[in-house]
């Protein structure tokens, strides 16, 4: 049978090794658990699917010309694919987020990004998608996906992003 031994150093009580080693091991175990059981970050796009319905496709983005909220032919093609996916998944909802590049004032960009989101929602409604399945809004020049220092970067930032929403 083992006996406990207390160690004193110049009349001061020394902390046993297990007293600091055990909390350290617990912290490492918690860290390992959280790293292996991650959940998507808040606000990240979440694609949901059920056993009865196929997985919802990645819908991508619709891009716009400078200071315009008019859909391009490429944008219309993307939205036709989104409308087809929504028709195939009647319980699916869509979040529509409009953005601009940094050209223009903040109030102007907020209004323009809202107009872009509304243009996308309007086109989807024309394709037969119920407006109650669509949410979103404009965010101006917030959350750029590229630099605003180059023409190509600005073009990437003039967009509306489409995210499927779990219901």
From TrEMBL:
Name of the protein this chain belongs to: OmpA-like domain-containing protein
Subcellular compartments: Cell outer membrane
Residues that span the membrane, as ranges: 17-35
Classification via InterPro entries: Bact_OuterMem_StrucFunc (IPR050330), OMP_bac (IPR006664), OmpA-like (IPR006665), OmpA-like_sf (IPR036737)
Residue ranges, annotated region (Disordered): 131-167
Domain OmpA-like: 51-167
Domain of life (superkingdom): Bacteria
Any one of the GO CC terms: cell outer membrane
Organism: Granulicella sibirica
Annotated PANTHER family: LIPOPROTEIN YIAD-RELATED, STATOR ELEMENT OF FLAGELLAR MOTOR COMPLEX
Biased composition (Gly residues): 131-140
Keyword field: Cell outer membrane, Membrane, Transmembrane, Transmembrane helix
